[in-house]
Amino acid sequence: MGLEYLKQRKNELNMTTEELSEKSGVPIGTLNKILAGQTSDPKFETLKSICRALDISLSDLDEYDAQGYYFDSDAAKMAQELFDRPEMKVLFDASRKATKEDIEQVAEILKKLSGK
Q: Exposure of 27 by Cβ count < 10 A (0-12 exposed, 13-18 middle, 19+ buried)?
């Protein structure tokens, strides 16, 4: 279903679940279940509403499921490691075609900028 992509896009937009509920018209309880993975097969209309609110298409979800967010598997692993570090989340505005090396370079720059 592209659950990780939905959560990622929500974070990219700095949107709370409450805001997503208001914008999509999907009840917050339903959204919480979907985002927690408790609802594995939400209704088509519900997904359409969520996608519209996140400014993505249903085909974006399908493409994400088919290949994952990053084309390079090493980049995907490195990105997940960085995603788990709050100070590094800025990296996720980068291109899907970023390589592991691209991400490492940006991470080093951010470390230097933050004085670490």
A: exposed
Count of CB atoms within 10 A of residue 31's CB? 23
Q: What value, to the nearest 5°, has the Cα angle with vertex 79 and ends 17 and 93?
A: 60
**Helical residues (DSSP H) of the chain, grouped into ranges:** 3-12, 17-24, 28-35, 44-54, 58-67, 73-83, 100-113
pLDDT digits (tens, 9 = 90+) for 1-25: 578 888 888 988 999 999 999 999 9
Amino acid present at 67 = Q
Alpha-carbon radius of gyration of the chain: 16
Helix (H, G, I), strand (E, B), or coil: what is residue 91?
Answer: helix
- Residue 25 and residue 2: Cα distance in Å, rounded? 20
